């Protein structure tokens, strides 16, 4: 009897989880993409690759902005074989280097290409420092994308109706931004233990939501809009930098419960392709619909200060 009760409880918990934390959704948006140009950071794997595939299938010109050329070229080959697209390009971008971000933008802007969608998708969990001495998670997940977006905004405005989609996480709810720590140590959390990784990750994801909140305010009067996204809890290479024992713990759970990248890409695609989202610029989406954010993620003063501090750290002010 005990075994039956235990089995029933486990099944019930799994069913509840699949309808809450691991709920699936489907993008229904159908904005035409033929002739439009998309930049996706980290588009060589996981959610980014799934997003790139869908947009290529719809006729978009897709630029994979990635650090690893071989992985990007392999992803392009896979996507081309599946979609028949002949308009996919790799461009080198290392978000852990502000110099690399500048070089990427200079190269792209020199081409004279239009830009319709900027998808800030890349992210990581891990320790260490960027080339500029910032904490890796803060530097890659937020600051590199902040600079990239800032340098490409005018090109987005030129195309008319451009969108910026930034992949954040429900983990922003546990984030906190300590500007004193950031000023003193150039990070928002670091360390070698899993809880330190997670804390720093939450802080960087809060930065993503606040960045989108402030960006929307600064874009008022233009026809460029922006959105932040929780893709769901997805099986990706996000945790490739964590220790072996952590992977041993995470992998079995991930294989059983986590969404696949195809499902994880749906909310990003919704914010790229759904008609009529313009009045919702600056909002946070999950399961292809607007969701409430944590109070810390809608603090106007903190969002403005983060923007100003980020500008200074990137040398834009």
Automatic annotation (TrEMBL):
Signal peptide stretch: 1-18
Annotated GO MF terms: oxidoreductase activity
Annotated SUPFAM superfamilies: NAD(P)-binding Rossmann-fold domains
A Pfam family per the record: adh_short
All copies of domain Ketoreductase, residue ranges: 36-201
Domain of life: Eukaryota
Keywords from the named record: Oxidoreductase, Signal
Name of this chain's protein: Ketoreductase domain-containing protein
UniProt organism field: Takifugu bimaculatus
Family: Belongs to the short-chain dehydrogenases/reductases (SDR) family.
């Amino acid at each position: 009897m005990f075994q039956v009760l235990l089995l029933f409880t486990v099944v019930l918990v799994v069913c509840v989880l699949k309808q809450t934390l691991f709920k699936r959704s489907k993008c229904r948006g159908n904005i035409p993409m033929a002739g439009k140009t998309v930049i996706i950071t980290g588009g060589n794997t996981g959610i980014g690759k799934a997003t790139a595939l869908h947009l290529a299938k719809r006729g978009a010109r897709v630029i994979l902005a990635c650090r690893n050329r071989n992985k990007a070229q392999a992803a392009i080959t896979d996507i081309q074989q599946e979609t028949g697209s002949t308009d996919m390009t790799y461009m080198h971008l290392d978000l852990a280097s502000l110099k690399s971000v500048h070089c990427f933008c200079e190269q792209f802007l020199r081409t004279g290409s239009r830009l319709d969608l900027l998808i800030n998708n890349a992210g990581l969990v891990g320790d260490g420092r960027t080339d500029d001495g910032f904490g890796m998670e803060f530097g890659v997940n937020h600051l590199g994308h902040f600079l990239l977006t800032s340098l490409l905004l005018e090109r987005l405005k030129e195309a008319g109706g451009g969108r910026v989609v930034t992949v954040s996480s429900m983990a922003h709810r546990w984030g906190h931004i300590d500007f004193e720590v950031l000023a003193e140590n150039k990070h928002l959390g670091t360390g070698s233990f899993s809880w330190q990784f997670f804390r720093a990750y939450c802080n960087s994801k809060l930065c993503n939501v606040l960045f989108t909140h402030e960006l929307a305010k600064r874009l008022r009067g233009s026809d460029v809009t922006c959105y932040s996204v929780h893709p769901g809890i997805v099986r990706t290479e996000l945790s490739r930098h964590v220790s072996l024992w952590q992977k041993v713990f995470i992998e079995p759970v991930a294989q059983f419960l986590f969404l696949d990248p195809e499902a994880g890409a749906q909310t990003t695609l919704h914010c790229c392709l759904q008609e009529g989202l313009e009045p919702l610029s600056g909002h946070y989406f999950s399961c292809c619909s607007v969701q409430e954010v944590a109070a810390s993620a809608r603090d106007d003063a903190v969002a403005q200060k983060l923007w100003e501090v980020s500008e200074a750290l990137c040398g834009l002010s």
